[in-house]
Amino acid sequence: MELHIRLDGRKGLADQLYQQLRAGIDSGHLAAGTQLPPTRLLAEQLGVSRKTVAEAYSRLTYENLLSGVVGRGTFITPQQRAHPHANQAVTLAAAPSLERWQQRATVLAKRTRQPASRYDFVGGASIKSQFPFDQWRSCLNYALRRSQQHPERHFSAQGLPELREAIAHHIAYARGVHCSPAQVLVCNGAQQALDLIARVLIEPGCPVAMEDPGYPPARQLFEALGARLQSVPVDDQGMCVEQIADGTRLIYTTPSHQFPLGMPMSAQRRQALLARACELGALIIEDDYDCEFRYQGQAADALQRLDQWGLVAYVGTFSKTLLPELRLGYAVLPPAVLEAACVAKHLSDWHSPTLLQWALARFMGEGHLNRHIRRCHDIYSTRRERILNRLNDDLAPWLQAIPANAGFHLSALAQPEVDVELLTHLARKVEVGLYSLAPFFSEAPVRPGLLLGFGAIELLDIDPALDRVRDTLQRLS
């Protein structure tokens, strides 16, 4: 690779070379420890005499900016030097827009910057110790062989047919979703699915209804696209459908495991939601983020299965069931939306990573996904039961669990005398990560409480952690 140097004219060449090398070193563009080309090679590249290059190198060596190593070459000296003052930055015309985006950081994004506690009840984090890494590695090797043998260079934005077929079979079996592979759009996580659907439906000022409390990244996404957001309260049956305003174009809901409170939407409320959407001509986004895990009661079909009018976009993810790092999700879209969403996907990133799609299709086809879900279900069920036992026992004076029968987090409401924000602060001092429900509320009155995830905390750590929470609550009382 050639060193980027430009010399003008035929006079003062050694000084020009010295000045450009010095500027590169002072600015940090030429980092400490970088090896410079030999004098003969650089002279040939620049079309100058070797003496010219040697003179510039000599001046830099005298100033201790370069050092020669016998048998190896010439290197930039690793030492601290003051950089010249940076040029004054020009204020961009788009500065107000940039500031608005900077202010959209969600509570979940901010949480990733916090160090993990020894005992952490973080929500949305799945178990890694049980993931079948050997089987996944084998599937990745298969994907590499497929890639080597595959003649195509470009792939459909909608996703590989093998993976879309595997997804359609899986969600029909596990969630009762009624779809064909032709309706499935493979995305980079559920968040991209939300973005694609919203991008083709939302225009500035467009009315969008969303549960309150609800999922902050979805709220921030809709607002960033210019939506006029309506916060719809929830009760013990789920979203209060009768409060969805006239003119609403898009409705976002988590009917199987309301985020973050956890209650499922009742059958009557589901029918009412579909009827209201039909009346408005509104699309419903059904975010079914963790409902492969169900612990009691009869599993309710997905809202999408009840849809007779093509009004429900069903969104799912493998980040919860497998690994967060996988970043693969999907959407089952009605015909009216599918083509536009595929165009938006193509314009966004062409298609999701083909290697991961081949690997995941193989992983699902060989039954590894279902076996992994069954293993995790037993583990999560035991952890959930342990937390509920404690909430109904020695923690009962302060916390009350909200009934929920799916997912891998549950929520607990706090008694009025409990200062939840102070509790979470003091708990972190004793190495327990607790998370308040307050950031998930927008306009609805905050119901003080905790979101208790049990995907990332080991069973043997639950009691010691909750002992510390109980002791902290006793001191606060």
- Any guess at the CATH architecture of the largest domain? 3-Layer(aba) Sandwich
**What are the segments in which pLDDT stays under 50 over at least 5 consecutive residues?**
none
* Major β-sheet annotation: 8 strands, mixed
CATH H-tier superfamily of the largest domain: Type I PLP-dependent aspartate aminotransferase-like (Major domain)
CATH topology of the largest domain: Aspartate Aminotransferase, domain 2
Helix content: 40-55%
Question: Can you give me a brief rundown of this structure?
Answer:
The chain has 477 residues and is of the alpha/beta class.
Q: What does this 3D model show about the protein?
A:
The chain has 3 domains: 13-76, Orthogonal Bundle (Arc Repressor Mutant, subunit A); 107-127 and 371-476, Aspartate Aminotransferase, domain 1, CATH 3.90.1150.10; 134-367, Aspartate Aminotransferase, domain 2 (3-Layer(aba) Sandwich). Helix content is 42%, strand content 14%. The chain contains 16 helices and 17 strands. The strands form 4 sheets. The chain has an 8-stranded mixed sheet with strand order 5-12-11-10-9-6-7-8, sandwiched between helices. It has a 4-stranded antiparallel sheet with strand order 13-14-17-16, covered by helices on one side. Strands 1-3-2 form a 3-stranded antiparallel sheet. It is globular, with a radius of gyration of 29 Å. The model has no long low-confidence stretch (mean pLDDT 92).
